Amino acid sequence: MADGQQFNIVTEGSVTTPQGFTAGGLHCGLKKTDRHDLGAIVCEVAAAAAAVYTTNVFQAAPIKVTRESLASSGRLRAVIVNSGNANACTGKQGEEDAYSMRNAFAEAIGVANEEVAVASTGVIGELLKMDKVYAGIKQLPGKLQADDQAAEDFSQAILTTDLVKKTIAVELNIDGKAVKIGGAAKGSGMIHPNMATMLGFVTTDANIEPSSLQNLLREVTNVSFNMITVDGDTSTNDMLIALASGLAGNDSLSEAHPSWGSFKAALTFVCVHLAKAIARDGEGATKLVEVRVQGAVNDEAAQAIAKTIIGSSLVKSAVFGADANWGRIIAAVGRAGQPVNPDTVDIALGDIVTLRQSSPVAFDEEQALEYLKGDTVIISVNLNMENGKAIAWGCDLTYDYVRINAAYRT
Amino acid sequence: MADGQQFNIVTEGSVTTPQGFTAGGLHCGLKKTDRHDLGAIVCEVAAAAAAVYTTNVFQAAPIKVTRESLASSGRLRAVIVNSGNANACTGKQGEEDAYSMRNAFAEAIGVANEEVAVASTGVIGELLKMDKVYAGIKQLPGKLQADDQAAEDFSQAILTTDLVKKTIAVELNIDGKAVKIGGAAKGSGMIHPNMATMLGFVTTDANIEPSSLQNLLREVTNVSFNMITVDGDTSTNDMLIALASGLAGNDSLSEAHPSWGSFKAALTFVCVHLAKAIARDGEGATKLVEVRVQGAVNDEAAQAIAKTIIGSSLVKSAVFGADANWGRIIAAVGRAGQPVNPDTVDIALGDIVTLRQSSPVAFDEEQALEYLKGDTVIISVNLNMENGKAIAWGCDLTYDYVRINAAYRT
């Protein structure tokens, strides 16, 4: 493999693809169905670790605990995750439960408490059933494997209203060594710019210091997970965590390393893949919507405009109905609070131009209908001002979104 | 009637209740159905006028024309409105059409062009069928009356996806004279903080200078129309216009007048009534949701938090499903970008307290279900910090919202 922006996708790859990682999942009883609800990723060495968290003022108890673990040495041996209960807004007891969950799993696999991170997703405001959690933690070490089935079990254990698991792995060459990056994510509701009941787990066997991994993860998050929205809500529990075992044996990665760009491109691919998978699996979604904005005064303006379009309930409903209602797109552009020249905007749905220099262009409605019926819809907006650009992802707004969210808790 | 914050509601009152105003409406053919789509309010004298407009960068042609009319002398004789077509993003031709519509109606009722305002609502990006508009304008003067039926015809002519007309009138005593304020509004989709395909018309026979009316209208809009949201979108066509004939004969109203507070309270009541009517009639809505925030660091913070809650698709879906999912409410509070103490928040649904000092309170789920099934749901949030407070209105998110917006244009 030549150096540069090159990497291969590993078929059926996931968080156990990189060297040093095992994973597993099981049903301990937090979900009412018999689906998996407790899982873990374990690294055989102390992995360099990095994480980004929800920006919500109300941060769930597991986030507090994970922050504390990560602050200890910047390295982790494991992350334990439950679904079915977010352990958020649960007061002092919830905090104690998150610590107990962490410490119990640390003991079960024989590592220090501070070497374990905790993540939770599910209903807010109810206490965790700790007897079920403890029972699950007893069985979990016996389930940990590096094979595909174990990775699959983990991916299932982190889902809530998701319909499909979201996993990926890539491989690239750094310093003559095969470096792998794997990822798994969950999320389908409460997904918005700043990561909302989204859990993401990235593993790699690359050799990289925690501080470099942290900076890179933050940068990559801004063009991947932070560019998706399902409904504009931001959860109390979002977390993206990256673990690097270093077992690939490459020279330590930093901005000075000649393969930094390649590694960044590969990690970006993994995170964008997972982010798009979350958007496509948005609650009730029937299609992925990609919004490409160019010609904005800068990238930040383009990001804000792209997110406003992708977040518009009217645009999302129109896409669901395969209605080429570009008026709603331009209305969203106009309320994004960014510099826009009202006379120079182009809009296209796929290849079908509907607006040029802010004037309507006659187009074939039948052709547009056919395009909008597809499973991926690309909306392109060119402001024709400067060179700012951005891409955002989301989904359509459907009857099923309403159905799912009208009765989530009950 | 004693002076102070006192006024009476006029039964079946509307824009023709105040002295000096006639109105009317008819079907000219802009809508595919046979519902009214062209209407006007006419004042027998040059009324003091004021208006507030959409904040969208893309402002529809009629807004440009109305701004120009209003800038001429601050006084208007009439406003002509069509539904079925927004005349937005229609380029030079659309602008010419808006002027032609204004000028044709000015000629038909024998006033100067600059004494007429124009408003449009409906589909974006299609040219007005001007032959139908002209034919309607010819008939419209013959329909203008001060009676209830004519006011009803006008109210019908401004509707799009609205299910019910929205009208109100009040009466109060100023300087020993009976002063009346009437109002009509339309709007059910694209409604958000800064007025979105919302058209509002307020008439009064109060004697007041245009500049005082303008300042007051802006102030009142901020606690009424700007505090409602249906779906977070902001139209290109919003307009709230107020006309004051002065025929009540009171001394000219200004902040120095002893009845200024009474007049303001009455106008606020009219605008809040219309705003709530719009929220309740939100596209697909089954109930009105009122969010009361108190204890914020200031009123602006309270407004932002109230609007974030009322705008949350997850909160709206839960209300539709009568699910007491207060976790989504606190998640919305936490992402509003305002100062919040995460340990001191109280939340109640009606009288049912679900969170106190940020800790869950056990409540009767059956009782909550019964309450949430009602046609009005009040969500109260107390941040227990300072004295900032605000009230916002919205509606639930339903299957019908999706149905209506998936196929609006077709």
From TrEMBL, chains A, B:
GO cellular component: cytoplasm
Swiss-Prot/TrEMBL site (Involved in the stabilization of negative charge on the oxyanion by the formation of the oxyanion hole) positions: 121-122
Pathway: Amino-acid biosynthesis; L-arginine biosynthesis; L-ornithine and N-acetyl-L-glutamate from L-glutamate and N(2)-acetyl-L-ornithine (cyclic): step 1/1; Amino-acid biosynthesis; L-arginine biosynthesis; N(2)-acetyl-L-ornithine from L-glutamate: step 1/4
Alphabetized GO MF terms: L-glutamate N-acetyltransferase activity; L-glutamate N-acetyltransferase activity, acting on acetyl-L-ornithine as donor
Keyword Transit peptide: no
InterPro entries: Arg_biosynth_ArgJ (IPR002813), ArgJ-like_dom_sf (IPR016117), ArgJ_beta_C (IPR042195)
GO biological process: L-arginine biosynthetic process; ornithine biosynthetic process
Enzyme class: transferase
EC number(s) per entry: 2.3.1.35, 2.3.1.1
Keyword terms: Acyltransferase, Amino-acid biosynthesis, Arginine biosynthesis, Autocatalytic cleavage, Cytoplasm, Multifunctional enzyme, Transferase
Active site residues according to the UniProt entry: 197 (nucleophile)
Chain positions recorded as substrate binding sites: 160, 186, 197, 283, 405, 410
Top-level lineage group: Bacteria
Site positions for Cleavage: 196-197
Location in the cell: Cytoplasm
Catalytic activity from the UniProt record: N(2)-acetyl-L-ornithine + L-glutamate = N-acetyl-L-glutamate + L-ornithine; L-glutamate + acetyl-CoA = N-acetyl-L-glutamate + CoA + H(+)
NCBIfam families in UniProt: ArgJ, PRK05388.1
Family according to the record: Belongs to the ArgJ family.
Assembly and oligomerization: Heterotetramer of two alpha and two beta chains.
Function comment: Catalyzes two activities which are involved in the cyclic version of arginine biosynthesis: the synthesis of N-acetylglutamate from glutamate and acetyl-CoA as the acetyl donor, and of ornithine by transacetylation between N(2)-acetylornithine and glutamate.
Name of the molecule in the record: Arginine biosynthesis bifunctional protein ArgJ
Gene designation: argJ
